[in-house]
């Protein structure tokens, strides 16, 4: 790859995510320009960045998903590169092509990698060719009638997902196949697949970093099984209680797949692990991923800075032996459950806290429910859980309904302490509180 200097970057990602990337770019000595809409104009995160550019749309569509508008903003802002954070545009091959066509550097995986990972069927094929198990999945289907034999064959629970990662309709896991027609109607004719859903299961993510020249490393794993209303609320690294032999197999699989697709930059390889230790490849996100800051905390690496280096044409520069863990960590996402105005908002001291909210802010969870991220580190897991619980007890939020108490209940639950974590646990804890 030809080397090129990167000096000024458009961060094509909204809100807290964009501000976080901008802070890391500026810490690496690179100027960052963040975008904002009229809706964002009073957000406190705008005060944290050096440069901001207003972006608008005439037809009511989301300007953060308009590639031409984003490229124009980069050129108007004097940028020489684009970073899409961990938004949907970060995995959009067409947007990556656009940036290259006007001479902008793309900080992320190249279009061929993005295109391969955008197709769930192709990605599963690559995984099977590499020898990794995948769940039983249909071929691409086009009509609701096509689903009937597969629903009968697989039974519940079943997962229905569009073939394309960039489809507007998210994947759905159904406990009853009778709910399938409503899900298929929302897909609006887009090709989709029907596959066996593993429930209960653990959702384990391996962070990987590659330079496209065959050099790849992993930065450990994290558990992201703990969800409410489809949103991950707790991430823990390393995944608790994972058998050493299984962890080694997942690490090997993640590295082989990242090397096979010639990943450039940061990525996340996702696996499902059943109660009996059986594992399946689930997905590969070829971009900065939600939860990357937890890996930074534990491994002491700045992943955004690493992305810039790799996009500039440098090679990886690290061997796996040089990557060492400083212990363990947990990330807690505090979310609103209903709209309101923050009358009081205090986060605990002594832990890493990231937020774009402040007293007086109006919160609409339909638009963005996230109130804050708390990241807690420690040398041992039990001490980590004690510190995390103490951090949650130090949170004070008034004026906006939130479910932080569910996270507190989780950290006091014997199953969490005994490493019995799966995709149903947090919802079960929350349900028994109500």
Describe the structure in your own words.
- The structure is a single chain.
- By secondary structure, the protein is an alpha+beta fold.
- The protein has three domains: 8-107, Rossmann fold; 136-196, Dna Ligase, domain 1 (2-Layer Sandwich); 202-433, ATP-grasp fold, B domain (D-amino Acid Aminotransferase, Chain A, domain 1, 2-Layer Sandwich), CATH 3.30.470.
- Helix content is 32%, strand content 25%.
- It has helices at 15-27, 67-76, 93-101, 111-118, 120-129, 144-154, 180-187, 244-260, 292-299, 303-311, 381-393, 404-411, 414-417, 425-433, and strands at residues 8-11, 31-36, 51-54, 81-83, 105-106, 158-162, 172-174, 192-196, 202-211, 216-228, 231-237, 264-273, 279-285, 328-335, 340-341, 344-346, 352-354, 362-363, 370-378, 396-398.
- The protein has an eight-stranded antiparallel beta sheet, with helices on both faces. A five-stranded parallel beta sheet has the order 3-2-1-4-5, with helices on both faces.
